[in-house]
Amino acid sequence: MASSLLSLLLYFTCLPLVSAWIFSWHEPDGKLLTVQNDVGQDCKLMNNPEGNVFDWTPQEGYWCLFLYGNTHCEEPSEGYTCKTYPWPDHVSSADLLSFKVKNNTSAFESSTSSISASPSATNADPSSTSASPSSTDTTSSPTPTIATTPTADATSAASSSSATSASTSTDDKPTISGGAIAGIVVGVLAAVAIAGLIFFLIRRRRQNAAQSSVVAGRSASLAMAELPSPP
Hints:
Shape: elongated
Organism: Penicillium desertorum
Largest sheet: 4 strands, antiparallel
Number of strands: 8
Radius of gyration: 39 Å
Oligomer: single chain
Subcellular location: Membrane
Helix content: 25-40%
Strand content: 15-25%
Order of helices and strands: HEEEEEEEEHHH
Structural class: alpha+beta
Distance between the termini: 52 Å
Transmembrane segments: 180-202
GO molecular function, one term: ATP binding
Signal peptide: 1-20
Strand order of the largest sheet: 2-1-4-7
Number of helices: 4
C-alpha cells in the first residue's frame, strides 16, 4: 500500500514537466536538426538560410520562440511567437543564425478569471432558556427501621459480584491493533509527501513567473515582428 501511494505521488510530481517544446530547422546542406526541452533555452546557434523551413511545436505549453539573424541573440530579432499552436514547415524569410525560448506563463494568466471564495460565517445566537427549578417538598412520616445483620453467605456473594464487575471492566478497555497503527503511519507519511508536493509546485510556479517577467518586460521600441499565422 505504501509503495503504491509513493508511486502515485511521483506521478503527480512529474505532471508539470510534460509541458515541453520542440524546435527543428534545416541547415544549408538540408540536414534536419531538432532541439526539445521542458524548460527555457538560452541563446543557441543555428543556421537556417532564407527559404528553408523550420518547425515549432510548443505542445500546449506557454512558450515564446525568438529568432535572430545574428549569432548572439542580439536585438532586434527577425521574429517571435508566443502562440500555443504549432508552426509546421514554416518558410523562413531571412537567414536565422540563433534562437532562444522563454517561458511565458504569466501572459496567459490574465485571461483566466480567478474565483475567490469569500468565507461565509454563520453566527448562531443561542437562545438561553432558563428553567426555574421546581422543588417538591415531600413530608414522609417516620417508618420503623429494622436493623439486620448480614450473614456470611451474603458477604461472600457481594465480594464475588464486585470481583466479577472489576474483571469485566478491565477486559472492556479498548486496544489499538497493529493494522490501525500501520494505517496511522501511512497516513502521516502521505500527509508529509503531499505537503512536499504542494511546496514544489508553488516554487516551480514562482520560478516560471520570474522567467516570464523577462519576456513581459521587453522594451516596446525593439523592432520585433510577430511571425504570421501558419497557413
